[in-house]
């Protein structure tokens, strides 16, 4: 009897040891078996390889890239045929600036790409152009954006017919290269605090532009140091009055200010132009600083869509307050954020392509007396790159949606849609650019020492992209705008108002949050349930509603003692997390919609797999939140973790097809370690072997 009692214990210990050995072995050969709904353990067995999904890259690529594939191919083909216009690895700041200018002139004047009309008429096509151009050189993408989206866009969107008639064609042809002069040395995010002034002189019928102090110098102005001939200058419009003050501040307006002589290219009288010098990245863009001293411009140079000054100095506007005029002005400039979000996804696609192709080619170690295996077969490499690849696909479809509603806004001018686009563009730009910045370092690390070679692009991509987190709105500031809008929508819900389109889910989700989590569903752990889009989306939205409710309670509590500003600052990290959670919910919702709409069954199956990985990986990354409120029971959390591992492995099996669907030619990725043929031969040739 005694012997019989001991045997089960010995068997248990043997089983535990075997399981530990098996888990360790997974770091070498992580080949899990597919989970079954009836198997709550979702066990991982080394030899149970599921049949690989069949993915037709061409069909997936057509669905991904849509109707603007042709114009992107035209851009790629132009630069492929012009190797002298491809940016070399080693290039000085001044050489890079001149090359960038020649690249842009070639694109416009030789390739016949004319972007300005698309800025208003077909924004989706414009953003497709910018993404393709940025894939060639991010500096070129930014310089193009300054010329057409910022300088050209400000003239079109903030001006009236007289401005379009005078400037449109010459901006489009690059005869009038220009700048967007908003940021000052002492004021970036706080645009209403800028100090440059434009004072109207009724005697001469002119505005006088002045920089009152060093803090008001226009700073980081793209195209200003070398190529710009004009600038849209943002300044406080001051009108003379007959009271003690002498002038009246009408708020920030935009003015067209000539910078250089059109023939000699010399700076005009009263204008000082200085070079901001060598930067961490984007050295193909000539950033400069501008100081104005009694620079006179005609009254017609006021971009007067939202406010005008008559010959006798009277101000008129369809908008009654400074704040409303300011909001309308900035609202017309959100296209820059939309473009940056789209371009950032383009950068992430390049980084994914390089890192994953390299990881498929590179072999290191393996089982005893057997060939070395691809480093993408290691679970650790899959954990670095597969969720990132899933996020890239998620961001792609989210930015496609953002571009769609931005285009609708430009056509309809629907006030509710304007507010929705403003908040959503702020949030997606902030979220995507922050993620891409971190991912570039992960991709570099995933490629080991070869990733550190400049020729393999990670350093350039990382340095050039880094500023995406700052310009067109600092990411932390933009996320606060999202949080503020969520709180506004929350207030509307409880006052019976109408929610904006993107926020509609809050009505139902908040009701779910205010009730207790379902003790039954919190324990469901089958793969069919975990891969159900409804479960995934409900989980994302539940978290957002929980964060929103608790943020509102905390703000009310702290505002009684600290006031509104102090309470906001006390809860700031909470509010940033809330904003990110909301954006993640929107991204997942748009990914799910894209999967459902995909017409090709094989592509749809691949996208579904990638979407599941994105959703469950995000849930696992914040599993503590779900566990704290018993939304997910311990056994379900364990199942999510195991299923996420399994999905990473399955995505690894089609990783080549997934990055090939980005359809980036070798001359665009330009990383020898990622070339689809003769990778190391090209790499050795570069270093002189």
Automatic annotation (TrEMBL):
Boundaries of every Acyl-CoA oxidase C-alpha1 domain copy: 331-486
Domain Acyl-CoA oxidase C-terminal: 532-675
Acyl-CoA oxidase/dehydrogenase middle domain segment(s): 179-295
GO BP terms: fatty acid beta-oxidation using acyl-CoA oxidase; lipid homeostasis
Cofactor needs: FAD
Sorted UniProt keywords: FAD, Fatty acid metabolism, Flavoprotein, Lipid metabolism, Oxidoreductase, Peroxisome, Transit peptide
Keyword Lipid metabolism carried by entry: yes
InterPro entries: ACOX_C_alpha1, Acyl-CoA_Oxase/DH_mid-dom, Acyl-CoA_oxidase, Acyl-CoA_oxidase_C
A single GO cellular-component term on record: peroxisome
Entry superkingdom: Eukaryota
Main location class: other
Subcellular location: Peroxisome
Any GO MF annotation of the entry: fatty acid binding
Keyword DNA-binding among UniProt keywords: no
Family: Belongs to the acyl-CoA oxidase family.
Protein name (Swiss-Prot/TrEMBL): Acyl-coenzyme A oxidase
Organism expressing this protein natively: Populus tomentosa (Chinese white poplar)
């Amino acid at each position: 009897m005694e012997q019989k009692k001991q045997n089960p214990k010995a068997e248990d210990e043997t089983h535990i040891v075997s399981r530990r050995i098996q888990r360790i072995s997974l770091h070498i050969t992580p080949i899990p078996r597919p989970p079954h709904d009836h198997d709550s353990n979702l066990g991982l067995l080394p030899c149970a390889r599921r049949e690989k999904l069949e993915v037709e890259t061409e069909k997936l690529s057509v669905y991904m890239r849509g109707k603007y594939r042709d114009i992107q191919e035209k851009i790629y083909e132009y630069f492929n045929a012009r190797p002298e216009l491809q940016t070399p690895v080693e290039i000085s700041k001044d050489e890079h600036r001149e090359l960038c200018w020649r690249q842009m002139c070639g694109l416009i004047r030789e390739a016949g790409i004319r972007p300005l009309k698309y800025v208003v008429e077909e924004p989706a096509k414009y953003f497709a152009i910018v993404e393709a151009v940025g894939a060639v050189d991010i500096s070129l993408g930014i310089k193009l954006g300054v010329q057409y989206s910022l300088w050209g866009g400000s003239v079109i969107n903030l001006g009236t017919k007289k401005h379009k008639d005078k400037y449109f064609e010459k901006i489009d042809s690059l005869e009038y290269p220009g700048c967007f002069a908003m940021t000052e040395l002492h004021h970036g995010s706080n645009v209403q605090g800028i100090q440059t002034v434009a004072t109207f002189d009724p005697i001469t019928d002119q505005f006088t532009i002045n920089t009152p102090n060093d803090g008001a110098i226009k700073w980081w102005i793209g195209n200003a140091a070398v190529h710009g001939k004009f600038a849209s200058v943002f300044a406080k419009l001051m009108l003379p009055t007959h009271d003690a003050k002498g002038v009246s501040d009408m708020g920030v307006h935009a003015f067209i200010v000539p910078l250089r002589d059109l023939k000699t290219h010399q700076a005009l009288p009263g204008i000082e132009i200085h070079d901001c010098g060598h930067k961490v990245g984007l050295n193909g863009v000539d950033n400069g600083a501008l100081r104005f001293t009694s620079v006179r411009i005609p009254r017609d140079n006021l971009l007067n869509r939202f406010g005008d000054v008559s010959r006798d100095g009277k101000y008129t506007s369809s908008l009654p307050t400074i704040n409303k005029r300011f909001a309308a002005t900035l609202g017309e400039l959100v296209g820059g954020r939309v473009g940056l979000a789209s371009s950032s996804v383009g950068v992430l696609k390049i980084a994914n392509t390089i890192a994953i192709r390299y990881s498929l080619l590179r072999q290191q170690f393996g089982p005893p007396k057997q060939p070395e295996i691809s480093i993408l077969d290691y679970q650790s490499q899959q954990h670095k790159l597969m969720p990132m690849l899933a996020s890239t696909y998620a961001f792609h479809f989210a930015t496609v949606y953002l571009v769609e509603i931005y285009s609708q806004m430009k056509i309809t001018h629907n006030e509710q849609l304007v507010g929705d686009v403003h908040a959503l563009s702020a949030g997606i730009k902030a979220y995507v650019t922050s993620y891409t910045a971190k991912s570039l370092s992960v991709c570099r690390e995933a490629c080991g020492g070869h990733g550190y070679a400049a020729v393999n692009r990670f350093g350039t991509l990382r340095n050039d992209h880094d500023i995406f987190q700052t310009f067109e709105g600092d990411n932390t500031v933009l996320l606060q705008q999202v949080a503020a809008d969520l709180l506004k929508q929350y207030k509307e819900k409880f006052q019976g108002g109408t929610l904006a389109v993107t926020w509609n889910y809050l009505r139902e989700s908040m009701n779910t949050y205010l009730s207790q989590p379902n003790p039954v569903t919190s324990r469901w752990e089958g793969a069919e349930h975990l891969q159900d889009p409804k479960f995934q989306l409900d989980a994302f939205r539940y978290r957002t509603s929980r964060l929103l409710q608790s943020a509102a309670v905390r703000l009310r509590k702290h505002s009684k003692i600290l006031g509104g500003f102090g309470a906001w600052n006390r809860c700031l990290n909470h509010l940033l997390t809330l904003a990110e959670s909301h954006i993640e919910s929107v991204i997942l919702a748009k990914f799910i919609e894209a999967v459902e709409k995909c017409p090709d069954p094989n592509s749809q199956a691949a996208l579904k797999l990638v979407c599941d990985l994105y959703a469950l990986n995000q849930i696992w990354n914040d599993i503590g939140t779900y566990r704290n409120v018993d939304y997910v029971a311990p056994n379900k959390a364990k199942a999510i973790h195991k299923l996420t591992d399994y999905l990473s492995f399955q995505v690894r099996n089609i990783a080549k097809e997934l990055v090939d669907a980005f359809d980036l030619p070798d001359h665009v990725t330009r990383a020898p370690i990622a070339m689809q043929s003769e990778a190391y031969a090209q790499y050795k040739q570069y270093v002189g072997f």
